[in-house]
Structures are given as C-alpha cells and as structure tokens.
Write a structure and sequence with these properties.
There is one protein chain. This protein is of the alpha+beta class. It has a domain of 92 residues: Alpha-Beta Plaits, CATH 3.30.70. It has 6 helices and 4 strands, in the order ααβααββααβ. A 4-stranded antiparallel β-sheet has the order 2-3-1-4.
Length: 162
C-alpha cells in the first residue's frame, strides 16, 4: 500500500526536476543530498566555460570533470520484464559503456537491484555540454527506452584497489 503523503515514483517532486532537453543547466537537480558541492556553490572555473568547480581544496578551486547520469527505466521490475527489443537496445548500451571504459572515460556503471532498476553511469567529461552529449548518445536514452538525469559528480572517498 502506498503512503499517500509520498509521491509515486512517476510524479515530479517540486525542486527535484531531472535535467534534460530544454533545461539549460543541471545544477537545479544537483543540490540533492550533496551530490555536488560545486553545483551548490554554482561556481565556474576560469578558462573552463561550462565547467562547475568544487569548493577550494588547499586554497585551489578545481574544475569538476566527473559526471553521473541516472537511467530511469520505464517501469518497475524492468530487468525481469524486458521485451526482446529492449534487450537488444540494452546490449547496445552495454557495448557502448564497454567502449567508454576501454577509452578511459567511464569510471563505473551498473544498475540498482530489486524492483527499481535505476542505472548509474559515472564518467569524466571536460564540461556539462560534453557530459550531456555522452548521456544523450546512450542508445537507451536517445531511443526513448529510458529517461536520463545528468548531475556533476566528484569521488570523495574510494576504496583502494587490492
């Protein structure tokens, strides 16, 4: 039973609009849960048109080159209910992510598990325009099979590789 005070997964929450076509800047969505302090500060790095910057670290303000896009599939339990056509497009998506990994742009990617299969892709791009192009070229986004949501991202902590 759904809690009537909580919006459904498909309702828009005021102030939490996903970035997308017709929205000139993803900073409106970036303030959620501290995903990017740079977006919160709304700073731009000199010489990095369109690049957001993070808060000063040791007196320096560095451009944000990390980005994350969320992939919101069209329905709950998507992974278990994909059609043959959707499986084909998701295989193209997977191949494309493999090429981005091989090329050094992709940091990590994968879906959430359970009944809500939101995907996430963390990657590097020099600015928001380039990041948006990468997201919008994803076959699941460009083909209308899922909705993409772009935000600036910075890895703050990472486990060492063994």
């Amino acid at each position: 039973m759904m809690d009537s005070a909580r919006p459904s997964r498909h309702e828009r929450v005021p102030g939490h609009e996903p970035a997308g076509p017709g929205r000139p800047d993803s900073r409106a969505a970036a303030h959620v849960s501290g995903f990017s302090r740079a977006a919160k500060h709304g700073q731009r790095a000199p010489g990095h048109e369109g690049a957001l910057t993070g808060p000063p670290a040791g007196g320096q303000t560095l451009p944000v080159t990390g980005w994350i896009y969320f992939i919101h599939p069209p329905r709950d339990d998507f992974a278990a209910t994909m059609t043959a056509e959707e499986k084909t497009v998701w295989a193209e998506h997977s191949g494309r992510l493999q090429r981005l990994l091989t090329g050094g742009q992709l940091i990590l990617a994968g879906p959430t598990l359970g009944t809500t299969n939101t995907g996430l892709v963390i990657f590097e791009a020099p600015d928001e325009g380039a990041a948006r192009q990468i997201m919008e070229a994803d076959p699941v986004i460009s083909g209308g099979y899922a909705q993409g949501e772009l935000r600036p991202f910075r890895v703050s902590l990472q486990r060492r590789q063994h």
